[in-house]
């Protein structure tokens, strides 16, 4: 069993602000930090920290060597990451206000320049016991999902950033579709009726999360853990990575949701994205502080 993640790798430039700027407004940052992010890298870190054997697929420049070293430090296997001369590593400009809310601008760089032949060669090793994670921040999502399903692996797709056309193309190969509440509303409006997947994982922020098993009709709800947010960046990725890892390890839907919700709640109490994702032991300690 293993988690394979065709995911984005971004270098995050984080600017702390009193409030998010309005159109035409120029404001001075109260702080700056450089960190590791990207929805893909975040989910890989979360899955690895949750205890799953995690292999990251994707691409970055042939520089920025601190990025794969840090992924390795967090337990992620990086030998399948493509290093591309002449390409820039993806990066994000993150504006973070004091309430914890954020606005993000992403430059995809190498994330959208993944070599198909190299990716398919790597995917030859995936097995029916494994899970492929995908997000809408890389190229070749459909090809990877096809290859994974052909081997019998599960495919969990985070429909973010939301793009209906990209979702339609990959949906026939998706096992579990993960979305936040806003993305779910867009999907249901655009595609009324039955969604052709096994399950829907919907996160609802302070309202918690739910998993809709579309094969049985059962819905499992998970309340959110009440915390004081510091930085919400990467919370959804933490949830998705922990959920995937828990299911990969044989956890029930209810247990996976609880673990993922706790990990996401603990993450938002910390500044940063991938670097702020908690370890499994930290999440267990956090859960013990919420008796019942």
Task: For the structure shown, list the relevant keywords.
292 residues, alpha/beta, UDP-N-acetylmuramoyl-L-alanine:D-glutamate ligase, ten-stranded mixed beta sheet, four-stranded mixed beta sheet
Give the overall form: globular
Structural class: alpha/beta
Overall CATH class = Alpha Beta
SSE pattern, N- to C-terminal: EEEHEHEEEEHEHEHEHEEEHHH
N- to C-terminal separation?
Answer: 31 Å
Domain count, please report it. Answer: 1
Low-confidence stretches: none
- Count of helical stretches: 9
Shape-level CATH architecture: 3-Layer(aba) Sandwich
Rg over alpha carbons: 18 Å
Q: What fraction of residues sit in β-strands?
A: 25-35%
Itemize the secondary structure elements and their pairings.
Elements lengths: L2 E4 L3 E8 L13 E7 L1 H11 L4 E8 L4 H8 L2 E2 L3 E4 L5 E8 L4 E6 L8 H8 L7 E5 L5 H10 L3 E5 L5 H7 L5 E5 H10 L8 E5 L5 E5 L5 E4 L12 H14 L4 H15 L12 H9 L4
Parallel strand pairs: 1-4, 1-9, 2-7, 4-5, 4-6, 9-10, 10-11, 11-12
Antiparallel strand pairs: 2-3, 7-8, 12-13, 13-14
Helix pairs in contact: 1-7, 3-4, 7-8, 8-9
Q: Can you describe what's shown?
A:
With 292 residues, the protein is of the alpha/beta class. It has a single domain, classed as UDP-N-acetylmuramoyl-L-alanine:D-glutamate ligase (3-Layer(aba) Sandwich), CATH 3.40.1190.20. It contains nine helices and 14 strands. The protein has helices at residues 39-49, 66-73, 116-123, 141-150, 164-170, 181-190, 235-248, 253-267, 280-288; strands spanning 3-6, 10-17, 31-37, 54-61, 76-77, 81-84, 90-97, 102-107, 131-135, 154-158, 176-180, 199-203, 209-213, 219-222. The strands form two sheets. Strands 1, 4, 5, 6, 9, 10, 11, 12, 13 and 14 form a ten-stranded mixed beta sheet that branches. Strand 7 and strand 8 (102-107) form a beta hairpin. The longest helix has 15 residues, at 253-267. It is globular, with a radius of gyration of 18 Å. The mean pLDDT is 94. The active site is at 237 (proton acceptor). Its EC number is 2.7.1.15. ATP binds at residues 180, 203-208, 236-237.
């Amino acid at each position: 069993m293993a988690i394979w993640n065709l995911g984005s790798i971004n270098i995050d430039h984080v600017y702390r602000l009193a409030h998010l700027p309005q159109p035409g407004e120029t404001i001075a940052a109260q702080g700056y930090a450089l960190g590791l992010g990207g929805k893909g890298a975040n989910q890989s870190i979360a899955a690895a920290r949750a205890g799953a054997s995690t292999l990251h697929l994707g691409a970055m420049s042939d520089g920025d060597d601190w990025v794969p070293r840090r992924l390795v430090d967090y337990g992620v296997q990086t030998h399948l990451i493509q290093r591309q001369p002449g390409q820039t590593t993806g990066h994000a400009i993150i504006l973070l206000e004091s309430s914890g809310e954020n606005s993000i601008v992403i430059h995809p760089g190498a994330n959208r320049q993944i070599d198909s032949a190299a990716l398919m060669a790597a995917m030859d090793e995936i097995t029916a016991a494994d899970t492929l994670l995908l997000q809408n921040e890389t190229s070749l999502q459909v090809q990877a999902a096809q290859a994974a399903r052909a081997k019998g692996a599960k495919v969990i797709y985070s429909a973010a950033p939301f793009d209906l056309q990209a979702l339609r193309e990959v949906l026939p190969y998706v096992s579990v579709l993960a979305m936040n509440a806003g993305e779910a509303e867009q999907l249901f409006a655009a595609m009324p009726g039955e969604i052709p997947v096994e399950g829907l994982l919907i996160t609802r922020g302070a309202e918690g999360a739910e998993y809709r098993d579309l094969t049985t009709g059962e819905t499992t709800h998970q309340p959110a853990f009440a915390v004081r947010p510091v930085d919400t960046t990467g919370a959804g990725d933490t949830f998705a990575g922990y959920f995937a890892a828990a299911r990969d390890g044989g956890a029930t839907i209810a247990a996976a949701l609880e673990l993922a919700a706790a990990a996401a709640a603990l993450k938002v109490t910390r500044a940063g994205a991938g670097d702020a994702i908690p370890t499994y032991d930290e999440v267990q300690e956090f859960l013990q502080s919420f008796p019942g």
